[in-house]
Amino acid sequence: MTELVTFLLPALPLLGLLLTLLLGRYPGCEAIVRLSERIAAQRPARGVDRRPGLPKPPRSFAPAGGLLIALGLARRPPPVAA
Predict the structure, then answer these.
(1) Higher per-residue confidence, 22 vs 26
(2) I want to staple 67 with a disulfide (CB 3.0 to 4.6 A). Which of 41, 44, 53, 63 is the partner?
(3) Domains in the chain, number
(4) Residues of the chain with pLDDT > 90: what percent?
(5) In a domain, 32, yes or no
(6) Cβ neighbours of residue 47 under 8 Å, at least 6 residues apart?
């Protein structure tokens, strides 16, 4: 009996959600609508008071990060045997 309870206990939230969906209720639907309305209200209209952004700096081709460390630790390879 305890094996059955330990098996079904984690499935109770799933069964509850399935039951509410079968009854036609959609949990969280109102929260999703409220959140989407809030996001839409915060977003400015397109093309209104849009200031041009700052120009991007020119791209640098200097090594950075791991490549910089690798180049700093690199040694000259041995000469080719003739």
Answers:
(1) 22
(2) 63
(3) 1
(4) 7
(5) yes
(6) none
